Give the backbone structure.
Amino acid sequence: MSAIPQNKLAAETSPYLLQHADNPVAWLPWGEEALTLARSHDKPILLSIGYSACHWCHVMAHESFEDAEVAAVMNELFVNIKVDREERPDLDQIYQTAHQMLATRHGGWPLTMFLTPDGTPFFGGTYFPKEALYGLPGFVGLCRQIAGVWRTRRSDVEAQNSELRRALAQHTAPAAGPAQLDVKPIHALRATLLGNFDPEWGGFGGAPKFPHPTDLAFLLQRPNDPQAHEAALLTLQRMAAGGIYDQLGGGFSRYSVDERWEIPHFEKMLYDNGLLLSLYADAWAINGLADFRRVAEETAAWTIREMTGPTGPTGGFYSSLDADSEGEEGKFYVWDRAEVERLLTPQESALAGRHWGLDEPPNFENKHWHLKVSAALAEEDASLLESARRKLFAERAKRIRPGLDDKTLTSWNALMIKGLVHAARVLDRPDWLAAAQGALAYLRKTHWQNGRLLAASRQGRAHLPAYLDDYAYLIAALLELLQAEFNAGDLDFACQLADTLLEHFEDREAGGFFFTAHDHETLIQRPKSCHDSAMPAGNGVAALALQRLGHLLGETRYLDAARRTIEAFWPQLEHQAGGCTTLLQALEEAITPPTIVILRGPARDLPGWQHSLAQRKSAITLALPNGLTSLPPALAKPETLHVNAWVCRGVSCSVPLADQSELAAALAKA
């Protein structure tokens, strides 16, 4: 029998796994080698799932995984597997669900699960301290206790495993069959969101408070619904004024530990900022508030400045910034008042103190200040505050920076591409469009191989079969790109992705899409869910994107697949609409097909029409300059000397409209 191996993470691409490559723990990446080893030695598996920007992952690593005595116990008793939840969201979904079933509470990161050699979990938790603390058992004692259970109570473990596997199988959406769709779940979701809305600070519920961008987008897109708009706009205002938003450098942290958006969990994730970028552009288009435009501009600037390599987005966007620097959460971002006074003029310091709360008691660990907007800024003070901001930002840049996770994920890049393109359309920023196109070119070159997507890359090395989210988000991003600048190659790529999605992910019997492809490795569960998390549900995005692509092209295969997806989850939508916001947006467009505007005419005259329509956000718009050939029949409108517009819904299109006021009237009527 072979010996237990040494730590084998050094060859991995994940920065999170590489952080643990020097641990004395004999970590193995998830794979056949580790699973075979567990079976051959009849040893339970200790599975640890985390990600590089995770504060408590670092704490547990420093306390336990870097400790030789703790590692010796782990190596003796278990086969130890380390997983990056961002590279392997399939494993994370399965074992988070299993944890919730076993512990009857939500999980989180680090996720610590003890598995039988076949991969079935029989005990789990999240963070465990080295010594008993916070009402949690000490990690070493827990390891010995779990190993003892495996040795002495094997039959109990196996009985529990049978029940857990049965429960996991039932957790996948059952076949629902054809349904008579209606708008009741949409009204129920609106009522739920407004019922949970915090009218003072915005957002939903209390602390900790997450942005929930899919819910905000749903409210912001309600036509003729001032109450829904007010809830979304107030939330976006409060977030922009809070510490969850980086007042100096732009960009949003993952969530706030309080209900006021004041103190964040400082990690910054690409996906949050891609989703929020679209929302702030739309918020500005709705009410013209300058702060909304400023936040969109600063967030896009942060993305391009800090989440790309030396070549910019032509290498794709990076994944995240750590919460910690120098081993302390938030150290990069917080201030001492004396330091601020030293850097600024007396006038700048006085204004910064009033505006950013430096005149108030310290709000971070009772000794530091984290900047948030405490007092509104007078218009005449804007230039003085900008001078103070530049000085503080320059000084902060000299500090030791938080760790950067520089891997490129297909799904997260797709969300940022879509966010940048949408904001570029609304705010007329061709530089953002160019950045998004650069990232897309990288994905097509590096992540699209042999007609299939790969999920992740680092330093140009791509690997891991892509997931539902990768395909669905990228189709949605391409649809946004097509509205900004029509490119036949982008349309063809969207169709290739859609066809691959149908071939390799669709549940052909029950409808909807599995999270993993039909030829993915066999795991203890194959997730299929309609629930949004911090990111929109892949099934919701797939249904919405396929539906729109189907309407644009008149392609019934895509429309039928979208319909089957909605029907598959219809019982859930009927009984519990909350949490399935993205799929409900697809339901809304299934009941009332989206308005499509096709513009045709000289290339030089199209941008003015496009920009006006982008700000209205009332239709899907394609601008097709004269000279394009081989257009799909549904898009092949005749060339004209001046711009003409066709307003279409379903298979019906208006007569050509040659005046923007006529188009505005037709859209209002539609």
Summary: The chain has four domains: 15-171, 184-323+405-591, 333-398, 595-669. The first strand starts at residue 28 and ends at 29.
